[in-house]
Design a protein that fits this description.
This protein is of the alpha/beta class. The chain has one domain. The protein is 38% helix and 17% strand. A 5-stranded mixed β-sheet has the order 3-1-2-4-5, covered by helices on one side. The chain is elongated and about 80 Å long. The termini are far apart.
Length: 144
Amino acid sequence: MITASVKTNLILKELGITRFSSRSAVKKSNLNPIYIYKIQNVTVLLNKLFEEYENVQKKLIVAIMSSTTLTNGEFSGQSSSIDEVKILDDIIDMNSKLIINFTSNKIKIASKIQVINSDSIDELTADPQKKKQLWASIKKMLNL
Protein backbone atom coordinates (compact mmCIF):
# COMPACT_ATOMS: atom_id res chain seq x y z
CA MET A 1 0.00 0.00 0.00
CA ILE A 2 1.34 3.41 -1.01
CA THR A 3 0.78 6.27 1.40
CA ALA A 4 -0.13 9.78 0.31
CA SER A 5 3.32 11.05 1.25
CA VAL A 6 5.07 8.45 -0.89
CA LYS A 7 2.72 9.17 -3.82
CA THR A 8 3.44 12.88 -3.52
CA ASN A 9 7.18 12.26 -3.50
CA LEU A 10 6.95 9.98 -6.57
CA ILE A 11 4.93 12.55 -8.53
CA LEU A 12 7.28 15.38 -7.60
CA LYS A 13 10.29 13.21 -8.48
CA GLU A 14 8.80 12.55 -11.93
CA LEU A 15 8.38 16.29 -12.41
CA GLY A 16 12.00 16.89 -11.38
CA ILE A 17 11.09 18.72 -8.18
CA THR A 18 12.75 17.85 -4.90
CA ARG A 19 10.58 18.14 -1.87
CA PHE A 20 13.34 18.89 0.58
CA SER A 21 16.55 20.84 0.19
CA SER A 22 19.73 20.25 2.14
CA ARG A 23 20.44 22.53 5.07
CA SER A 24 23.77 23.66 3.69
CA ALA A 25 22.04 25.06 0.59
CA VAL A 26 19.53 26.96 2.73
CA LYS A 27 22.17 28.56 4.95
CA LYS A 28 24.26 29.94 2.10
CA SER A 29 23.92 33.67 1.80
CA ASN A 30 23.93 35.55 -1.49
CA LEU A 31 25.89 38.37 0.17
CA ASN A 32 29.65 38.61 -0.05
CA PRO A 33 31.68 39.08 3.11
CA ILE A 34 32.13 42.68 4.16
CA TYR A 35 35.51 43.96 5.34
CA ILE A 36 35.57 46.89 7.72
CA TYR A 37 38.41 49.44 7.83
CA LYS A 38 38.33 52.26 10.36
CA ILE A 39 40.41 55.35 10.96
CA GLN A 40 39.21 57.33 13.95
CA ASN A 41 35.60 58.47 13.27
CA VAL A 42 35.34 57.18 9.69
CA THR A 43 34.51 53.58 8.83
CA VAL A 44 34.62 52.15 5.33
CA LEU A 45 33.08 48.88 4.16
CA LEU A 46 35.15 47.09 1.54
CA ASN A 47 34.89 44.02 -0.74
CA LYS A 48 38.23 42.64 0.47
CA LEU A 49 40.76 43.28 3.22
CA PHE A 50 42.37 46.72 3.07
CA GLU A 51 45.79 45.05 2.93
CA GLU A 52 44.81 43.18 -0.28
CA TYR A 53 44.26 46.36 -2.31
CA GLU A 54 47.00 47.76 -4.54
CA ASN A 55 48.93 50.78 -3.23
CA VAL A 56 47.06 53.18 -5.54
CA GLN A 57 43.73 51.94 -4.23
CA LYS A 58 44.92 52.05 -0.60
CA LYS A 59 45.99 55.67 -1.07
CA LEU A 60 42.60 56.47 -2.59
CA ILE A 61 40.75 54.91 0.37
CA VAL A 62 42.87 56.81 2.89
CA ALA A 63 42.53 60.06 0.88
CA ILE A 64 38.74 59.69 0.81
CA MET A 65 38.68 59.03 4.55
CA SER A 66 40.99 61.98 5.26
CA SER A 67 38.94 64.32 3.08
CA THR A 68 36.02 64.03 5.50
CA THR A 69 37.90 66.05 8.17
CA LEU A 70 36.76 63.44 10.70
CA THR A 71 40.30 62.04 10.91
CA ASN A 72 43.47 63.75 12.07
CA GLY A 73 45.45 62.64 9.04
CA GLU A 74 46.28 59.37 10.78
CA PHE A 75 47.03 56.59 8.31
CA SER A 76 46.93 53.46 10.43
CA GLY A 77 43.57 51.81 10.65
CA GLN A 78 41.90 48.71 12.01
CA SER A 79 40.59 45.91 9.81
CA SER A 80 37.94 43.29 10.53
CA SER A 81 35.39 41.29 8.56
CA ILE A 82 31.82 40.01 8.84
CA ASP A 83 29.73 37.58 6.82
CA GLU A 84 26.25 38.97 7.43
CA VAL A 85 24.83 42.45 7.10
CA LYS A 86 22.49 41.70 10.03
CA ILE A 87 25.30 41.87 12.58
CA LEU A 88 26.81 45.05 11.16
CA ASP A 89 25.07 47.20 13.77
CA ASP A 90 26.73 45.18 16.52
CA ILE A 91 30.22 45.54 15.07
CA ILE A 92 30.21 49.19 13.94
CA ASP A 93 31.84 51.39 16.55
CA MET A 94 29.34 53.93 17.87
CA ASN A 95 32.13 56.55 17.82
CA SER A 96 31.99 56.47 14.03
CA LYS A 97 30.41 59.56 12.56
CA LEU A 98 30.43 58.40 8.95
CA ILE A 99 30.30 55.06 7.12
CA ILE A 100 31.26 54.89 3.46
CA ASN A 101 30.11 51.69 1.80
CA PHE A 102 32.25 50.56 -1.15
CA THR A 103 30.51 47.16 -1.41
CA SER A 104 27.64 46.09 -3.63
CA ASN A 105 25.51 45.39 -0.53
CA LYS A 106 23.14 48.23 0.31
CA ILE A 107 23.63 49.09 3.95
CA LYS A 108 21.22 50.66 6.42
CA ILE A 109 22.38 51.14 9.99
CA ALA A 110 19.87 51.29 12.84
CA SER A 111 21.95 53.87 14.71
CA LYS A 112 22.18 57.51 13.68
CA ILE A 113 25.50 57.10 11.90
CA GLN A 114 25.46 58.63 8.43
CA VAL A 115 25.99 56.15 5.57
CA ILE A 116 27.15 56.90 2.03
CA ASN A 117 26.68 54.05 -0.46
CA SER A 118 29.38 54.47 -3.08
CA ASP A 119 30.73 52.69 -6.13
CA SER A 120 33.49 50.12 -5.58
CA ILE A 121 37.11 51.20 -5.19
CA ASP A 122 37.91 49.62 -8.58
CA GLU A 123 35.24 51.76 -10.26
CA LEU A 124 36.39 54.92 -8.47
CA THR A 125 39.98 54.28 -9.53
CA ALA A 126 38.94 53.85 -13.16
CA ASP A 127 36.42 56.71 -13.41
CA PRO A 128 37.24 60.21 -12.09
CA GLN A 129 33.59 61.26 -12.55
CA LYS A 130 32.52 58.73 -9.92
CA LYS A 131 35.12 60.19 -7.53
CA LYS A 132 33.55 63.61 -8.06
CA GLN A 133 30.10 62.21 -7.29
CA LEU A 134 31.40 60.64 -4.08
CA TRP A 135 33.10 63.88 -3.06
CA ALA A 136 29.87 65.79 -3.70
CA SER A 137 27.99 63.31 -1.49
CA ILE A 138 30.56 63.69 1.30
CA LYS A 139 30.47 67.50 1.09
CA LYS A 140 26.68 67.54 1.16
CA MET A 141 26.40 65.12 4.08
CA LEU A 142 29.09 66.78 6.23
CA ASN A 143 28.36 70.37 5.15
CA LEU A 144 31.94 70.94 3.97
